[in-house]
Amino acid sequence: MSPRTPEQFEEIRQQSRARIMEEALELFARQGFHNTSISQIAKAANVSKGLMYNYFASKDDLLEAIVRQEIEQGEDLMEILSSTTHDPYEQIQMIVTGAFQMVKTDLKHWKLITMLALQEEIMQRMSELLRQKTERGLEDAIRLFERMGVPDPKAEAYLFGATLDGIFLHFLSTGPMGVDYPLEQVQRSLLQRYEPYKTTTNED
Amino acid sequence: MSPRTPEQFEEIRQQSRARIMEEALELFARQGFHNTSISQIAKAANVSKGLMYNYFASKDDLLEAIVRQEIEQGEDLMEILSSTTHDPYEQIQMIVTGAFQMVKTDLKHWKLITMLALQEEIMQRMSELLRQKTERGLEDAIRLFERMGVPDPKAEAYLFGATLDGIFLHFLSTGPMGVDYPLEQVQRSLLQRYEPYKTTTNED
Amino acid sequence: MSPRTPEQFEEIRQQSRARIMEEALELFARQGFHNTSISQIAKAANVSKGLMYNYFASKDDLLEAIVRQEIEQGEDLMEILSSTTHDPYEQIQMIVTGAFQMVKTDLKHWKLITMLALQEEIMQRMSELLRQKTERGLEDAIRLFERMGVPDPKAEAYLFGATLDGIFLHFLSTGPMGVDYPLEQVQRSLLQRYEPYKTTTNED
Amino acid sequence: MSPRTPEQFEEIRQQSRARIMEEALELFARQGFHNTSISQIAKAANVSKGLMYNYFASKDDLLEAIVRQEIEQGEDLMEILSSTTHDPYEQIQMIVTGAFQMVKTDLKHWKLITMLALQEEIMQRMSELLRQKTERGLEDAIRLFERMGVPDPKAEAYLFGATLDGIFLHFLSTGPMGVDYPLEQVQRSLLQRYEPYKTTTNED
DNA sequence: CATGAATGAGATTTCATTCAT
DNA sequence: AATGAATGAAATCTCATTCAT
């Protein structure tokens, strides 16, 4: 009888929004943005087509919401790292391990962002959002390599990032979900590159 | 006024086909496959919509033709390399230089292939085609690193390939056509990695 | 905290109804009936969409209610006139002055009715309502001109009414709310037409 | 076998375009713009929905095309008048007769324009177009009344135009297509107004 | 009495493909 | 071999209306 409270409405909204975004991410990542229809998303999210437009002004808007969320998450990687160890090699190790872990479990986000990054038209709308995140990650990496004593930290940071993304790209391009991509081997090999910069004190 | 010979007809056909494929590649790479219409391609290729279907049975068919051509070209990279030098370091050098050269001038092909590779649905149709090419390149690289004496040649080959593709990916994702991506610096740094394996004595 | 009396409830109901109708009139007049959504009206009336259906069975019903109200008001123009003066010229004067006054302050009603009158489909539902009002006004005017001694009172009444509505139509069509429509001048000129029929001697 | 010539294509285009515009005008005038769907128009024009967009970029564009055509026609009313007679009273007579003739046969155009003129939102897009036409007609009328020797020619022109449009408005609002609107009577009465200004030479 | 989430029918628009010439 | 008009299916989007709370 009594109407729902604004809080209840807000919760319902959040749930529906989240479900839609989740399914949309899934589908966009698998099929691409332009190859995924609102109908598909609605069906996947178990929601009527019409409702989609209650939450997102347009398909473009939905995409933007997803990307924005993606970027706003994972904000504080470096902070987490710093709180665990101050040794730069160990931090690299953690980054690599973390990234490879992520890649195995949940590659949707990376895939979507990468696909978008390759489409100029879409990029223009997103570039502001993406630029920031990329830049921050890069700067963190540069500082890391500086502290490790690598000769050309900036170039190394670029190379490091490129290698990681390149691995994911190949992993994803190899058949259905990277079967027979030698992920572990590659990971080990990548880390070995930076072993020379391991801090001499207290190591194996 | 005299009727054209069958050969002339055939040549005209080939020219039209080529122009269509070229413009389609351009557009697909810039806007994505699903976001590019037949009309756009026809206009860009200065050809009527109807004529498109004289050359390609469907939009999908056009895409496949482009990808197939892409793959069939550049077939013989290693052969060219081998004919120039037998020193593996120099060959790596040439590969890297060549790739970085290509990236600056004509990235369309790489971009299109990569975009496609990320879309499962499209991939399925193409995977046969792509797998071959990737595999062959990989094997070549493994042999190269073996000859260089790198500890884990297979992993190194994977890393090497990933790094190259990662660089291109980042280059493309950085603003309009990679302005302010430090391509030269990165190239130098990448090559330095393999300098330790330079054969000091000049062999061949 | 004490429960409201039924009368209070009824009053609140009436207020809400009135506010909705007012805002709807505003929007319908500005944007047209089919171009105005229930959501817009609800927002403008500061009421939930659902509640709208508590007061009006449908959008059509809301429109009908507005038109009906419009018609039921202003019922007794002639009565008012008669009570003030019996001189027909003065009555014409009052009608004209009144109409021109109305036009400057609140043209919404006239506009809405006119827009509706031009749409056959809508008209059919409303025509019963509108016919009456028009007819009564017309008859009043005919009698007026008869008493003034105009040669063809019926035709004159038609002309008079047409001129008034035509003026309003032009006034509304001239830029934003009739800026630079010479309303005063036109009003004066219109009245001059009937000056010959002014009773020089004060009659009745 | 041989392709159609550009001229043939152009002719086909013009025919289809014309048919679509004609039917759209009919429907817009009867039902209103926002209350007429592209599907309805397509069906009426015996054409697929898709084809509509071959000729008009949008529904709005279609409307604009119709209005523009409407305005560009009937350009030279005054020129025609001048070529027939120089007597201003006779010209007025001709205008009135012509307008009343038009109103009986083909009121669609007037109706559509009038409906649009009442919708602010639509008007904004069209106002440039409409303003011109209105202004020109008005100026012509003012000059006419000047030559007739009417006391306040400007006000008279406004009144005259308003009366004409008002008559049409009432005619249209009276049941299905103005049955029982005394059009002839009103016409006669309107003309009588200007008889005093008939040129004294050679009259009845 | 009141809310706004949710629906579904239908509107506008797009586009690969066909076809008469 | 070549054209672009024409189609139809499907995509995006809108909105009056219903309903659980």
Structure characterization notes:
- Chain A is mainly α and 204 residues long.
- Chain A has 2 domains: 6-67, Homeodomain-like (Arc Repressor Mutant, subunit A, Orthogonal Bundle); 74-197, Tetracycline Repressor, domain 2 (Orthogonal Bundle).
- Chain A has helices at 6-31, 38-44, 49-55, 59-72, 77-84, 88-105, 108-117, 120-148, 153-173, 183-192.
- In chain A, 28% of the residues are buried.
- Chains in contact: A-B, C-D.
- At the A-B interface, helix 7, helix 8, helix 9 and helix 10 of A face helix 7, helix 8, helix 9 and helix 10 of B.
- Chain A binds a DNA duplex (21 and 21 nucleotides) through residues 1-6, 8-9, 12-13, 16, 37-39, 47-54, 58-59.
Quick structural gist:
Helices cover 74% and strands 0% of the residues of chain A. Chain A has helices at residues 6-31, 38-44, 49-55, 59-72, 77-84, 88-105, 108-117, 120-148, 153-173, 183-192. Chains A and B meet through helix 7, helix 8, helix 9 and helix 10 of A and helix 7, helix 8, helix 9 and helix 10 of B.
